[in-house]
Amino acid sequence: MPVDVIMPKVDMVMETGTIVRWYRNEHEMVTAGEPILEIETDKANIDVEAPASGVLMAISAKPGDVVPVAQRIAQILMPGETLDLLSQSNSPPVPRLAETHQRQLPVTERASNGATRVRATPAARAISRQYGLSLAEVTGSGPHGRVHKRDVLAILAARQTSLAQTKMAAEQQVATPHVPADEEGELIPLSGTRQIVAKRLMAAASIPTFTLSVEVDMSAISRLRERVPWRPSVTAIIARAVAPLLLKYPDLNSSMRENGIWRHRAVHLGIAMEINERLLVPVIRHAHRLDLQAIQQAIRDLRERAQDRRLGPADLQGSTFSISNLGMFGVDSFTAIINPPEAAILAVGRTVERPIVRNGASLLCPVCVFTLTADHRVVDGALAARFLTDLRAVLEEPYLLL
Hints:
The protein has helices at 122-130, 149-171, 192-205, 219-227, 234-248, 292-307, 381-395, and strands at 3-6, 16-22, 29-30, 35-40, 45-49, 54-57, 66-68, 72-77, 108-110, 116-118, 209-217, 254-257, 260-263, 269-271, 273-275, 278-280, 283-284, 321-325, 344-358, 361-375. By secondary structure, it is of the alpha+beta class.
């Protein structure tokens, strides 16, 4: 039977994806596991693989279209199969395409009262009467042009799709403010990705959050990096410190759900990265089980695959806590926005030389500001403060992380 190609759900909060391009055209053979199209989310461009082998048919979304997750965008058929118009899916049905061979036009038959009528099955007549459809408008696919139930459904589906597209186009029309003719500039339309980002940021803005910051003496981390042959990155050291600490503070490794707070047993760290002028947050799975060198390798592997556009949906979903380090861009400190449905995110600024008083003496030390943003529905302020205090203690004695 036909297999649906749907818009995949890359992460828990993804609602739509944008079609970038199709690698295959309709009527072409595809192989299961072969990339057949590229989609764009707010996190990355991802190749979608064929769920089965067969003939690609009924492509219903073109490049640039923004499509809801789980909506059918094509079907894969085995030779001799017809499109599945009767399947119950989350997406609107796709109109049945014309047969490759020449189909006969509907023929008429003479009724008992001498009148002529279109040859059709009882089911086709019943459905056409129910929806006020004239059988004369339907091209029959049966013997001698007889109209079947599937033919009527195809016409109704096409009308439904057309109405939906018309309604969507009307809803998307936004009044454009008057701009003086002499004003210089240009209008940059929002891409599908930017629309998704805007929508998700609006959702994040509704979360009641609070932020706490601490200064961390990075002297020991600087010495550690110099002494370890493979020179771990600052982000890797921070991730190695955060992951096991989240097991001690499970509220920070939780998600807010409609019926309560879900505490994750595993720590899956999202590491924010800037790749080709785009923000990605790939995930290190079971980070609490990894040593420093393994975390360093995981981050390097994720970055390389992101640069080569080889990240898949599994690499970008399921994070339970995120870390965003902008220190390499010269940012002193910042407040990161929570990535729903996570309960917290840690923002890391750059390391700068600052005077610190110790034992009555002023010392010039490398200092970094760590800022935690937390969902107040899940995390209390005192708990978040204890987490940051413990994190600072670990980072100022980083040799314990080896």
